[in-house]
Amino acid sequence: MTTVTATHPAVAGFSLASILNSPQPSVALHPKPLLHSLAAFQAAIDAYVYKGKQEIARRKEVHASRLKEDGDKKRDMEEAIEREKRREIELIAVLEKEKLESKEMEASIYILKKQLASLTEQSSSLDVETNDLRTRIARLLKEKSRDLAVLEERAQAMSPELSLYETALGFSVTGVKEDVLLFRFIRLDEHSPNRVFSFVLDLSKQDYSVTMSEPPLGAMPRLVDALNDTREFWTFIKHVRASFVTELQDA
C-alpha cells in the first residue's frame, strides 16, 4: 500500500473536509508523478523478468550442456558395451575353434598312437621274419656252396668226357656272368652242322631256371623240373641235347 504524505506532489493542497463538504466530492490526482512511479515499477518488473529470463536461459543452457554430456557419456558407454559384446563374440568363436582343433588334435594323436602301436607290432614281426630269412638265406648259401662244390667236383671228374663232348659233339659252356652259364651245341643238324642250339642256365637261386633257349624247346620246363628234383646236372645236359635232336627231327 502507498502512503500519501503532505509533501508528496500528488496530494499537495489536499483537504479531506473540503472534499466532503463539496456537493460533488472528487479527488484530483496528479498523473505525471503516478506515471513516473508506474514506469519505474514497470522497469523494475521488466528488469526482474529479464534477469529471470537470463537465469532461465543460463540454467537451460547448463541443463542442455549436462544433457549433451550425459548423452555423450551414454553413447560412449553404449559403444564400449557393443565393442565388448563383439569382442566377447569373437573370443567365444576363437574358443570354439580352439576346442574343435583340440578335439581334432586329440583324435589325430589317438590315431597316430594306434598306428605307432601297430607299426611297433609289425616291426617286431618283421624282426622275427628278418631273422628267419637270414637263417634261410644262410642255409641256401650253404646249400648253394655245396652244390657248386659238387658241380666243380663232377666237372673235374668228367673233364675227359667234357672234352669228348666238346670235340666230338660240338658242345661248349661259357660263363655269361656269376652263376649264369651259356650252353651251345653244334653238329645236331646234319643239313647244317654249324647251326648253334643254345640255352642259358641260371644257377643263382635254389631252384635253377632256363632264361633263354634258341630255338625254343618245348620239353625244357619238364627237364628243368627234373634237374631241380634230382640235381643230376650232366643228365640234364644230355636230355636237353637229345630233346633238341628230337624236335629237329620232328620239325
UniProtKB/TrEMBL annotation:
List, alphabetically, the GO terms of the cellular component aspect: Ndc80 complex; nucleus
Q: What are the Chromosome segregation protein Spc25 C-terminal domain coordinates in residue numbering?
A: 176-245
- Which key words tag this protein in UniProt? Cell cycle, Cell division, Centromere, Chromosome, Coiled coil, Kinetochore, Mitosis, Nucleus
List each coiled-coil range: 67-98
Gene Ontology terms: biological process: cell division; chromosome segregation
Q: Where in the cell is it found?
A: Nucleus; Chromosome, Centromere, Kinetochore
| Subcellular location, principal | nucleus
Q: Summarize the subunit comment.
A: Component of the NDC80 complex.
Outline what the protein does: Acts as a component of the essential kinetochore-associated NDC80 complex, which is required for chromosome segregation and spindle checkpoint activity.
Q: Which PANTHER family match?
A: KINETOCHORE PROTEIN SPC25, KINETOCHORE PROTEIN SPC25-RELATED
**Family to which the UniProt record says this protein belongs:** Belongs to the SPC25 family.
Query: Know the name of this protein?
Result: Kinetochore protein SPC25
Q: Which organism is it from?
A: Calocera cornea HHB12733
